[in-house]
Amino acid sequence: MFRLLKNGNVFAPEPLGRADILVCNDKIVDIAEHIDFNYPGTEVVDLEGRTVIPGVIDQHIHITGGGGESGFTSKVTEVGLSDLVRGGVCTVVGVLGTDSISRNVESLLAKVKALNEEGLTAFCYTGSYDFPSPTITGTVARDIALIQEVIGVKICISDHRYAGITRKELTKLAAAARVAGLVGNKPGVVHIHMGAGKKGLSDVFKIVEKTDIPVRTFRPTHASNNLKDMMKLAKMGGYADFTTCVGPSQTAELMAPFLKEAPDGSVTMSSDSNGSMPIWNEKKEVIGIKAAESTTVFETVIALHKEQGLPLEEALKPCTVNVAKALNLYPKKGCLKPDSDADILVLDQDLALSEMYAKGKKMMAGGKPIVKGYFEK
Fold first, then answer.
1. Residues 68 and 98 sit within 8 Å (Cβ to Cβ)
2. Which pLDDT does position 313 carry in this prediction?
3. pLDDT band of 277, cuts 50, 70, 90
4. Segment 357-365 mean pLDDT
């Protein structure tokens, strides 16, 4: 099937100006100022100058639900397909969190496979906060090398919920993930929940200093917990990942000065969505829990642009080209180029999400999802 999107104001994410985009099935065939194409059955869509951007890549979503730290009733349910579509998320990486007692990597992988069947692009990390890391095949290395959807391992450090992993054990885990990534042609990274604990990234820095493990093997998230260590990591050649579910405006306010100082391409962002978020009253007492939304990555892009004054192309990079390169997905993902996947978002005049195409399949129209998961009402 051919689809011709005409007269869009295209950010690829670099600004291309007014251009047409020709899509065949799940791929972008061509992007040019003007494309004449009249193959029978081609759907022609006039975008009338609306803004066109690459689909969001979110590398940290609790697709099988997060939470559970206030008892079993606080466990968040599985994410629905339409929940991800609302956020313009075309590519997702699923994670486990604190709870690997009532949740497991097998169910995480099954949900990844379901999202791929439903039309998105989905991957996951083996492991969780726990150590030794829970796996499917028995070892982290086998999971990464042999299971197509598994691209790395997750662990927790500098947090009161961490499992006591030592620097020596973290070194061995990183070495195993890196070698498995080479064998399986995967990123082979250690995705790290970094809390606000006393040690920060000190163990990571010492491992990089004393071993030959590349700094980019370590991928800490929740940058706001320790901006100083995250900046140091970025300047060493690593990636700093910001978590947007704390609030788009708040995240944008932290990211804007960080982006000015950090090396180009070193900053990413992810939502941590579908995890539990406490609701506080004025006395700082927890009065409820809600699930974090997947919309916050896109909303942070808009906040960076409108509230912090970043050019749209710069605001887009942390959730498109930067993270695509970090996960070895570029140029298949994270950009609008010939031969890239047709992950395309169309924005209205106010830069709100209007249409979404994931691998060429239309999933949003008029700002609302037009697809749902198997059991969504």
1. yes
2. 98
3. confident
4. 98
Mean pLDDT of the chain: 95
Contacts of residue 71, defined as CB under 8 A and 6 or more positions apart, other chains included, come to none
Phi, psi of 89 (to 5 degrees): -85, 115
The string of pLDDT tens digits covering residues 281-312 is 776 566 677 788 999 999 999 999 999 999 99
Q: Identify the bridge partners of residue 288 per DSSP, sorted by sequence position.
A: 279
Whether residue 272 lies in the annotated active site: yes
CA separation for the pair 91, 164 (Å, rounded): 32
**Active-site entry in 99, 130, 203, 272:** 272
Cα–Cα dist 300/43, whole Å: 32
Q: What is the Cα–Cα distance from 323 to 363, expressed in whole angstroms?
A: 22
Half-sphere exposure (Cβ direction) of 303: Cα atoms closer than 13 Å? 17
Average pLDDT over residues 115-143: 97
Strands 189-194, 218-221: pairing kind: parallel
- pLDDT, tens only, 27-62: 999 999 999 998 999 999 999 999 999 999 999 999
State the pTM of this model.
Answer: 0.96
Cis peptide before 278 (omega within 30 of 0): no
How far is residue 203 CA from its own chain's centroid?
25
Tell me the sheet residues that pair with 69: 71
CA dist 74 and 117 (Å) reads 28
